[in-house]
């Protein structure tokens, strides 16, 4: 038997369109509501990301949504805009009006197809639904040549009726047929079979394009979408971070990277600019106030981090031993080593080397022994603690700046006032700086920025509870940005403001020790 391992040619690759509905279906997640300006900012990032189609909202649902759809249609002239509408004239009119300034647009009309929806929600017969679908597609076709029709809940509908419905809308001019797994009910094999059956048996079925819209109730949204591609779909409807109703939609980043990583198997490709994935993910997470699960594929905090000593050792020798993707190609900061009780000496040595600290063998053994003791206590050993342990073992201060003391005065009717005391490496003096801000953290950051002249832009803060009760400890993860490079500092403390301050100083120290910034003398505005 001959096994063909040759790579497919570019011409053989099927181009998959990415239809992003983060701003419509994604926003339907409880608590995920976005204001018009947030939608516009995210839509700009989606355009940079390279999505083919943006569904900016449900124009008839509110004046704010109408305004956002209208503004996005006017501004983003390089992306196709989808106007979303129920099979109702008023919805279609609103969608047409809101998208009229788009350079390229389509009308996206949907109606239910499963008996349970027809009987209990629409309270209409199959014949009535077919006639409504036919009439509304014909009505929309007067205004827009590109019509996408969605047979909602088609994975739970009878195949014969789905075919009848699809035939009717194709006859009236529908150009894209979407067969949604609205409840995330289908298995990949049966979802793919539905596409093959409709394409084969619906009259005109080979004259239109097919789209998949999968929900994640059983965790199969990406698997079902891939099955649809293998069955002939050339468009997949997705959301960033998989946001959406209930358990969400097919995740853009997971689908795109599955196709990219297994391109030769899938015989498919997308036009997504993968280096923009991480920024787009973070933007949506912040705007919706939806934290990303640590173990979320692709963009989760742990997706490219390794604590196991065996994994860390292999990874440091060759990244491909325990990673199948390059996180930096997706714009994800390279922070692959997480230090905990399972970490080995190789990982500790590697992390210290990132700070320019190179202990000898005896000192490294001492650091390792101290580290193991702290790891049992802290679970994860943040960088500032590791540097402190290295300083104890080598009997010299390694970090350029050390936070000695912090005080914050807060109140309900006044600005927050803070003071921090900082010690600079090589100096016996401790200097105190004061600052104010609308919040205690802002006041503290202003103080630290006086103390550390080259302190970089405070980009992001993550806070995580590590325990419960009155003595609960929190972990702060601070990201800073310096000339396009991102550095992260971590710290753990009962006082979350102090933890954030230590993490910020730690990130600045990492930046300085990495050589990304020169280290001038401290500012003279200390008190």
Automatic annotation (TrEMBL):
Is the keyword NAD in the record? Answer: no
The chain positions of domain Pyruvate carboxyltransferase read: 16-278
Q: Give the superkingdom in one word.
A: Bacteria
What are the EC numbers? 2.3.3.13
Question: What's its top-level EC category?
Answer: transferase
Q: Which UniProt keywords apply?
A: Acyltransferase, Amino-acid biosynthesis, Branched-chain amino acid biosynthesis, Leucine biosynthesis, Manganese, Metal-binding, Transferase
Among the Pfam families in the record, one is: HMGL-like
Which PROSITE patterns does this chain map to? AIPM_HOMOCIT_SYNTH_1, PYR_CT
Under which pathway is this protein filed?
A: Amino-acid biosynthesis; L-leucine biosynthesis; L-leucine from 3-methyl-2-oxobutanoate: step 1/4
Q: Does the keyword Metal-binding apply?
A: yes
As one GO molecular function, the record gives:
metal ion binding
The UniProt entry, under SMART domains, shows:
LeuA_dimer
> Which InterPro entries does this UniProt record tie to the protein?
2-IPM_HCS-like, 2-isopropylmalate_synth_dimer, AIPM/Hcit_synth_CS, Aldolase_TIM, LeuA/HCS_post-cat, LeuA_allosteric_dom_sf, LeuA_bact_synth, PYR_CT
**One Gene Ontology biological process:** L-leucine biosynthetic process
- Protein family: Belongs to the alpha-IPM synthase/homocitrate synthase family. LeuA type 1 subfamily.
What is the protein name given in its UniProt record? Answer: 2-isopropylmalate synthase
